[in-house]
Amino acid sequence: MTTHLFIITGASRGMGYCLAEQLLVPQHDLLCISRSRSATLTETAQQRGAALTQCVADLADPLPAAEQLKLWLAAHDPDAIAGATLINNAGVIPPLVPLCDSEPVDLVQALRVGLEAPMVLTAAFLNSTRSWQTPRRVLNISSGLGRRPMASQSAYCAAKAGLDHFTRCLALDESCLPNGANVCSLAPGVVDTDMQVQLRSASPALFPDQANFAQLKANNQLTSAHDAAARVLAFLSRKDFGDLPAADVRN
Question: Is 189 helix (H, G, I), strand (E, B) or coil?
C-alpha cells in the first residue's frame, strides 16, 4: 500500500485546520505543526482511518520544528510513499499600526513565522527527501497583500512578498535537479478567518483600509475557510501545479 505524506503548518484553526481535515482520508499520513493540538483532528483521523501526527511548535523559532520534520520523514520508507507535500500555511498579522508605532517583537514574530519558518522547513523537507523518487510538492500560502502594498501592514506584506520571491528562486533551484520538487506560492483569495476579524476590527485612524475589509464582510464577499481549503487542494492536485511559481487560486 502506498501512502501520500502531507505536512501542514498552522493546522489548528482557520484554513490550515480545514486543509488538514479534508486531507484526513485513508492512505494519507499527515504531520501538522501548530502552536496547539486539535482534539477534533485527532478524532477525525481515528474515525476515517488516516494517520495523523501533531507537533506543537512556535514557528517564531522554526529550528525545533525543522528537526521534528526531519525525524518524521526519516521514519518513513521512501519506497512506500506515492507523494510528499509540504504546505506552509502559518502566518501572523501583527498589530495594525504604522511601522513607526510597531513593537520590534511583533515585527520579528511576523517575519519569522511568515517567511523564515517556510524557508527553514522547506529546506529541511527537500534535503530529507532529495533521494526519493516520488513526486514532491511545496505549496506556500501567500496573499494578495504580498503583491500590493497596504498601510500599517508592512511586516505582513513584506513576509508574503518575500514568500513569493523565495518560491520563484526555489523553482529555479529545483528545475535544475533530477526529480526536482514542484513549488508554488498561492494566494487563496479573501478568506473568512480570524485574520479578517482582526483587520476589520482595527482602528480606522491607524489602519486606513479598515472600511474596505468591513465592507467585504458586509457584502458577503468572503470565502469560507472550508471552501477556500477545497479550492487550494484542487489547485494542488492540478497537473500544471508549479508551472507558475506565484499564482492566485482565482485565476
Answer: coil
